[in-house]
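Hi V.,

You were right to ask for the full record rather than a summary. Here it is.
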Amino acid sequence: MIRMDTIITKEAVATAVYEAIPHLACELPADILAGLAAALEREEAPRGRAVLSQLVENARIARTDHVPICQDTGTVWVSLEVGPGVLVPADVFAGVDDAVARAYDEARLRKSVVRDAILDRANTGDNTPAFCDIHPVDEPGAARLRIMLKGGGSDNASRVIMLPPGAGRAGIVEEVVRCVREKGANACPPLVIGVGIGGTFDKVAGLAKRALMRPIDEPAEDARAGELEQELLAAVNASGVGPGGLGGATAALAVRVATAPCHIAALPLAINMGCSAMRRATVDLVAQPAGASDGADGDSATVDPANGSLSTPEPDDAPVEGGETVCAQIKSSYDRSSEAHEAEGRAAERRVSEPSDGASSGTCGQIRSSAAPIRLTLPLDRARLRDLKAGQACLLTGPMYTLRDAGHIRLMEELAENGGALPYGLDGQAIFYAGPTPSAAGRPFGAVGPTTASRMDFAAPALHRAGIAATVGKGHRSAEVRAACAETDSVYFVACGGAAALLARCVASSETVAYADLGTEALRRIEVVDFPVFVGVDTNGGDVYELI
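Predicted structure:
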């Protein structure tokens, strides 16, 4: 019998989650930042360079202004890893939902969880529940918490495939590349791709998600897994999908593989997309003696920055080197040599990041590309739209409307009730597929960026025919949408996914027009200044993704 010497308290777990969330939402991991900067130095494709420039600048803005990196502040995924000798009470996650609710409210993060996937899609209003599990590891005394804020766009681009054993290594490579080609643009490349191989249908997805927790500069322990990771990365990047899915050399920063035993008749494969805003941390928990009260102080969740985790010291915002504070901030464990690794990422950022002249004035400035962006005034002149070609960079200035999934369902109902006439003065206007975070840093939104446009394909053709001149989102559109654009002299613009802090600086004002009860999915009229986009679908039906 294993003697249980220590216990992980629910207070320690809840404290770690509460303190991690604001940090993860607003500061890009140092290894990811360094990876983006290195990719920018290598990138030659104009659109790829423009996307990477925006992502690097976005990371700087998010950290400086302490606003979310991405408007999709995700669902909270928590995995408690425990080894032999550590006792875990049955209610170890009992305080997590309260911690999530408090952190999301205090940090002004977007709440994106609905009560039930099909029976009740009303927003819970506090981003709970968190999705928690316990994962045993063969490390005596181990007690660590894996925390990830996982956006919907990247998770939606993921898949599980039950391959026949004969598919082998080549079949795995083929499926990963196919997934990136078909769905990668929706997941905001450059990606970090978690690949799970083995186990059972229900276990392989967990393997893929846990694989995302390994830093992109940390080699696999098994050399054979490392070789497969490099083979997969080379194949993915050879696809040409590139940053933002708009073409270039870097579709992924890394591929991380986790394997497990499986049945002789099976080859389970899971592909979990991680976006350019990889928000993850590992917290080494401090276990209490087994006889200790379950009411132990919450600061039992402190971690040691020297070994790559984070520190939660006294509640007086004690300063650390560099002038930062770590109280109530979990500084991510991807930073194994903490300050040195962080300094590396910041140095790489400085080498490639050139803040625009408009950065301090609240505008986005110029898109860095081989040609000057085309300036367009909203509402859009359809004659002017006919001159645009897929792939061109543009800057939008003027009024635009935000609306996404639930709002589109409402709008389509009103369109039918009005005999095909658009309500709310939407005729001739542009709809931005976005669900912003609450206001912060003296701006209307803390963060605002594009969501996956294809989810609105059910409504877009009818709305274009009713009078909508343009839509703004990310990722591919259907043949029906492209045909409607050609039929109505309308366009689809692609904005950079994962650059939501930067794009929020382009928003001068916001007012709710309708559907206020939908919260982040309400219809809003916003004023934008030099809002950077690419022509995704032009008035001839030309598609930027077909240029890759």
